[in-house]
Design goal:
metalloaminopeptidase activity, nine-stranded mixed β-sheet, five-stranded mixed β-sheet, elongated, 464 residues, 15 helices, manganese, 2 domains, alpha/beta, Peptidase_M17_N_1, Leucine Aminopeptidase, subunit E, domain 1, Peptidase_M17_C, Aminopeptidase
Length: 464
C-alpha cells in the first residue's frame, strides 16, 4: 500500500506548527503557559527537521512542533515537515497557524507521505502512526498520485536483482498496466533479433533463459500529445567481460533505476488522467558473463543501422537504450525522454542529489529548471556539446560506445544517445537513482529523480 493522507474526522486532530528559528519566539508567545514551559524545558530550538510533541493537561499529545531551521539554511533542506511522519507519536496531525507559505504547503504534504514510505518485502515493519490531514488549498489527489508513483519507483529499485530481473520488471509493468487500463507488448529472447533489436539482444544474451533480454512496450491513452518515456532496465550489471570491481558492483541492483523511474512517472500520469498518448519503452536485460557475452572490439549494428564499436562492455546501457530510442523515434513523438543510471561521470559532476539533463530545446530546458525548483525535485542542465561528437566516432564503425581518455563521460554518453533519438523534443536524464544517506522524505535506498520535475513541466513543454 502506498502512503495516503488521513481522512478528516477519522481521529482527534493534533495541531502541527512549522516553526523557523526566526519565528520561534513568536510561536512560544502564542502557546499556553504549560505548553510554553514544556517546549522551553525540552530545549526545542526549531532546528531543521527537529520535532517535539507537547502534552495537553490530560497527558495526550496536545500539539506538535517541527523546526524549519533559519532562513540562511533554508536552501540546504527540503521536505523538513515530513520528518514529523517518522518522529512524532501516532495520531492525526493538521498543519496550523502559518509558518509555511502557500507555495510550500504542497512540498510539506508530499514530504510527509514520502517520509512514511517503508520497504518491507524482506523485513517486517509497519508504516509510521503519525498521519497528516491534507492541508487546505493543496490538491490532495495529485500529491497522493505523485507519492504513489515515487514509492513504486523506490520499491522496484530496492528489490535485489535475484527478485527483480527482466521477467520481474516485465511483471511490474504488466501489473501497472492492468491497474491503469494500459496495454503491454513484450519482445523477448531471440525474437529481438528477428524484430531488429540487435543491441538489446547482444547485451542480454549471456543471461540465463529465465532472465532473457526483452523490450517492454506499454501504451496508454487514445488522444492528445504523444509522449514517449524510455527507461534503462539493466536489472544487474556485472560490467560484462570488462567486469566491474566488487566496490562498483555492489549497488548494481539499481542499474534499472531509469526503468523504475519512468514506470513511477507513468503511474503519476495515468492516475492523474493527463490528456496524452503515453508510451513507455523499457529495454530490460541482465549484463551477465558467460560464453555468449558480447566482447570488447565487437562491432554491433543497431536498429537504426548505425554501427557501434564496443570498447567497453560496461558501457552497455547506451546500447540497449539506442535500439529503444530508434523504435520510439519511428513514431515521431511530441516529446521523447530517456532516463538512465548511465554514467559515473554525472555523479562526479553533480553528486547524487541532482538529476542532470540534456536537451537542445531552450524552452524545454527552462521549463524543467523552473519546475524542478517549484516541486523540490532538483535538476541541472548539461550540454550536448557538439565539438565532442568526434570523441564518439572511432575508426572502424560509426560510433564508439566508450571513448578513451575518460573526459566528459556524461556528455559523450548523451551525444551517443542523441544519434538515435529523432523527435520534436528530446530530453535525456542521467540519474543516480539512490539516496546514499537518509534525509527528510528520502530514506536511504532507491529514489526517483527528475520525474516530478518533468510531470510539473509537461503542460508547458507540450502544451497539454
Amino acid at each position: 500500500m502506498f502512503p495516503t493522507f488521513a481522512k478528516d474526522g477519522s481521529d482527534r486532530v493534533i495541531p502541527l506548527f512549522a516553526v523557523s528559528k526566526e519565528g520561534l519566539k513568536q510561536r512560544l508567545d502564542q502557546l499556553s503557559g504549560p505548553a510554553r514551559t514544556w517546549t522551553e524545558a525540552s530545549g526545542f530550538a526549531a532546528g531543521p527537521g527537529e520535532c517535539l510533541a507537547v502534552p495537553d493537561p490530560e497527558g495526550r499529545v496536545g500539539l506538535a512542533l517541527v523546526g524549519l531551521g533559519d532562513a540562511a539554511g533554508a536552501a540546504r533542506h527540503r521536505f523538513l515537515v515530513g520528518r514529523g511522519a517518522s518522529s512524532l507519536p501516532a495520531g492525526t496531525y493538521k498543519l496550523s497557524g502559518g509558518g509555511l507559505g502557500q507555495d510550500h504547503l504542497a512540498e510539506a504534504a508530499l514530504g510527509w507521505l514520502l517520509e512514511s514510505y517503508r520497504y518491507t518485502r524482506y523485513k517486517a515493519g509497519k508504516a509510521p502512526g503519525a498521519r497528516l490531514l491534507a492541508p487546505e488549498g493543496v490538491d490532495a489527489g495529485r500529491i497522493e498520485a505523485i507519492a504513489a508513483g515515487e514509492c513504486l519507483t523506490r520499491d522496484l529499485i530496492n528489490t535485489p536483482a535475484a527478485d527483480m530481473g527482466p521477467a520481474e520488471l516485465e511483471a511490474a509493468a504488466r501489473d501497472l498496466a492492468k491497474e491503469m487500463g494500459a496495454k503491454v507488448e513484450v519482445i523477448a529472447g531471440d525474437e529481438l533479433l528477428a524484430q531488429n533489436f540487435p543491441m538489446i539482444h547482444a547485451v542480454g544474451r549471456a543471461a540465463t533463459p529465465a532472465r532473457a533480454p526483452r523490450l517492454i512496450d506499454l501504451r496508454w491513452g487514445a488522444w492528445g500529445r504523444k509522449i514517449t518515456l524510455v527507461g534503462k532496465g539493466v536489472c544487474f550489471d556485472t560490467g560484462g567481460l570488462d567486469i566491474k570491481p566488487a566496490a562498483s558492483m555492489g549497488l548494481m541492483k539499481k542499474d534499472m533505476g531509469g526503468a523504475a523511474t519512468v514506470l513511477g512517472l507513468a503511474r503519476m500520469i495515468m492516475t492523474l488522467g493527463l490528456p496524452m498518448r503515453l508510451r513507455v519503452l523499457i529495454p530490460a536485460v541482465e549484463n551477465a558473463i558467460a560464453g555468449e557475452s558480447f566482447r570488447p572490439q565487437d562491432v554491433l549494428t543497431s536498429r537504426k543501422g548505425l554501427t557501434v564499436e564496443v570498447n567497453n562492455t560496461d558501457a552497455e546501457g547506451r546500447l540497449v537504450l539506442a535500439d529503444a530510442l530508434a523504435l520510439a523515434s519511428e513514431e515521431d513523438p511530441d516529446l521523447l525522454v530517456s532516463m538512465a543510471t548511465l554514467t559515473g561521470a554525472a555523479r562526479v559532476a553533480v553528486g547524487p542529489d541532482l538529476a542532470p539533463f540534456f536537451t537542445d530545446d531552450e524552452a524545454t530546458a527552462a521549463a524543467l529548471s523552473r519546475a524542478g525548483s517549484q516541486v523540490a525535485d532538483p535538476v541541472w542542465r548539461m550540454p550536448f556539446h557538439a565539438p565532442y561528437e568526434k570523441m564518439i566516432e572511432p575508426v572502424i564503425a560509426d560510433l564508439d560506445n566508450a571513448p578513451s581518455g575518460g573526459m566528459a563521460g556524461a556528455i559523450t554518453a548523451a551525444l551517443f544517445l542523441r544519434r538515435f533519438a529523432e523527435a520534436q523534443r528530446y530530453v535525456h536524464f542521467d540519474i543516480y537513482g539512490w539516496v546514499p544517506a537518509a534525509a527528510p522524505g528520502r530514506p536511504k535506498g532507491g529514489a526517483g529523480q527528475g520525474a516530478r520535475a518533468l510531470l510539473a513541466a509537461l503542460p508547458e513543454i507540450v502544451k497539454l
